[in-house]
Amino acid sequence: MxxxxxxxxxxxxxxxxxxxxxxxxxxxxxxSPSTSGSADTAPETSETASELTPHVVASDxxxxxxxxxxxxxxxxxxxxxxxxxxGYVVDGxxxxxxxxxWHEDSFDMPQQRGCLRGRSLRQQVYNADRIKYxxxxxxxxxxxxxxxxxxxxxxxxxxxxxxxEALTYVTDELKRVYDEYGETAVVINGWRWAPATAxxxxxxxxxxxxxxxSFGCWAFQTEALGMYSWGDHxxxxxxxxxxxxPNADTIVLYGCNPAWATHSSMYWLKNAKDAGVExxxxxxxxxxxxxxxxxxxxxxxxxTDTAFLLAVIYEMIRLDEEQGNIIDWDFxxxxxxxFTPETMPEDATTEENFRDYILGKYDDTPKTPEWATEICGTxxxxxxxxxxxxxxxxxVIFLHSYAASRYLGAENLPQAFMTVGALxxxxxxxxxxxxxxxxxxxxxxxxxxxxxxxxxxxxxxALAAAPAKxxxxxxxxxxxxxxxxxxxxxxSAGPYDAGSSPEDDPTKLRANTPTYHExxxxxxxxxxxxxxxxxxxxxRGNLSTGIQVMRQADACFSFEIKMxxxxxxxxxxxxxxxxxxxxxxETWGELCWPSAFGDGNGQKQRKDALLAWKPLVKPMxxxxxxxxxxxxxxxxxGADPDAAxxxxxxxxxxxxxxxxxVLNEDATKFEPVITWTEADQEKYHSTYPVQExxxxxxxxxxxGSYVVERKEGDARNYVGYLNDKLGIGEDGETAVVxxxxxxxxxxxxxxxxxxxxxADNVNRIGLNxxxxxxxxxxxxPRRGYQETFVDGKIGGEKAAYPLQAYTPHYMRRAHTCYxxxxxxQEAFHNPVFMNAQDAAxxxxxxxxxxxxxxxFGKMLRKAQPMQGMMPGTVxxxxxxxxxxxxxxxxxxxxxxxxxxxxxxxxxxxxxxxxGYNSLLIEIAKYDGPELEEDYERGPFLAAGVDADxxxxxxxxxxxx
Length: 960
Fold this sequence. Notes:
Shape: globular
InterPro entries: Asp_de-COase-like_dom_sf, MoPterin_dinucl-bd_dom, Mopterin_OxRdtase, Prok_Mopterin_Oxidored, TAT_signal
Family: Belongs to the prokaryotic molybdopterin-containing oxidoreductase family.
Keywords: Iron, Iron-sulfur, Metal-binding, Oxidoreductase, Signal
GO molecular function, one term: molybdopterin cofactor binding
Pfam family, one: Molydop_binding
């Protein structure tokens, strides 16, 4: 089953690949006017514009003539939307892309459409900055010390080397460092669930990180409060599905911008708007989603959400006492604990209840709107309006992203948000809800209608095999500062999302909640940093310290597909394949199959759709599949590769699709999605048993997806906290109750407005001398609004850094993924959004090059003043590629990374949280050279090196 014709020689393939890159660049002008189908004909003049015909290039003719085939592309990138793209492959080259069109689009059976990022993926695969060959930094030598010439990392030239040389350097240095320093000297500079990280416990151990990344403080004791987490994804799969959204009176989008971040959900939200649902946007800006849905804007300053919600609760109490019908007392008394003295949980160690705290009984500070408005900037009348809207007789769905909890000091935000929903009784009934709107679960929530049966079909994830040595974990925002200082503070035995077992949790909490221990200082000595397709240098906070750490190490090794910032600071770069690339033909060289599961995205399909994917092209240049390289490293180190990678990628791929089961219309039985015949077994060299499903395997691959056709009112539709959550029985067919809606996973079995476990667990750490309360109490967050004033006195003299900056997701990229594609670079520039009056006060106009700065660093962007930004707030879309100018006394990032402006400060109580949105800065008009657009800058790696050449690479974009 060779993917392409065997007669095509590898050398010809490389030539065609380079040609495809040029064709890709031309493809953007495929709608340019011309007098004929020729690509060489001059454009029409304005006089004959009405007679224009489409511009056609050679690849269009290939499709028309049927010279290739459409093949499915699963968009394995970090937006987690899992959309469908199709690539047209001609002689081993993808010459065109399209999205899902194999069936008519409908609300009941929607097409799985890709966004502009995914539909531009050719520009990522066929890109001049692809790492084509193993490379060594010119002045680096093994052995550590002066041999490393670490001061040249990020500036040095590159030499092409062989794979054997690269792996020899890597394994020799690993052996040396393990012998001399031990496991605390080997730092895995990447996700702990990535394929490469699985080998280190079998080599001698290493240092990993554990932090909440996307989820912020919403991951803080989620199940202990009575909410639900899917793995490490908190408060998810518990909102109403797309059929129930129109039953709401109001939908609140709290800190959300799905038009940019989770675009598919706009389909469901727009349908609700058309049905008459009103929308509310809460946050510091009036974004694209709010404008599209005509939302009412509730202004809340960055990081002050807990104060806002406490005032809302105060108003709900006041209004209920004055007029009634605000608080759902039946729900509070039956489904929650801790709001009143009468509802306190059995394990409470204080007599403090939440209502009396709100009224100021314990601190002489009633949490009134007047108290809150000074902090959060929300007008008093808007706080009262929000409380009225949240009343029990209104059908309200509260949907949050995690942006509002990616602040330092947001530990109590999830509990406060939950409490507002609970006071109005907005759980467990149609047209109501209170949960996350996130990735595949965005706008169409609920249990998976398509689930994996596991068993013999179950793939083995990178970390499924038991490690020979336990992982050592550095927590949260202190990654770079801990490595620089040679020590870190440990507060838990495992990662933040690891559950507590009865052995280490005497309370036997039924939740997937970590148990913290007393904080203790642990040593670390970063001699080797091993990067694995995660771009930690660019995406972790405290970038300036990150540069210092990487330049002080003995060796930095990197797996990469492109010249990322992390790769630029490496010593040995090993090129790995994209998810487009694989080889099942021995005549082409090493057999390999892309690993689509290492980042977990293979298991994150949408609830009612299964997306197909397969290798489209052969591995390009000398790129190798990541796990294959890891297996060779393990063999050279004397370890057993099967211990880390017990199943092949191919077996995982096939078992993934064949193990999928779809819930029938009666919601009583799970049935196979894929039909698998004896002929399929022979064709695909499989031993999986035959089965009767909904679609044949080859047909499924040709279509690119299988979508469950649903309808209004069928048994599979979902309302959170009302329906049972379904799982698959041991027979692999029967639908069974895996976790009923009630009781909840908390110790009380209810939503815990007062949670003793939360307080005891967190206060056990001892990092903060002021204990956290069992309820959502207010405390001053670090790097918050108060610090924009001298001495923290709100309303007084402004401090040196008076602007609060946060880092929204951006349509152009998903974190740093996709960001090297010229088409999207041209469509979306890299602005800094700021309030129009703030800009005018600083003499800044739209398009001006500005410097954003604080005590930790400086970076440049182009200004975009906006009326829809709260005064004193700044939005910096994250994920850019840094371009360091080190020509002066300090580093200036001309690429514009917001990570230059953070310092790794830990949150008040939850050290695993990354405070990406807690940036205090100043902005001024830049008096140096104006910024060039990044699409004009050129690739970060010189292109055009011949396959047989020893030509030296030169890193571009670094000012020595």
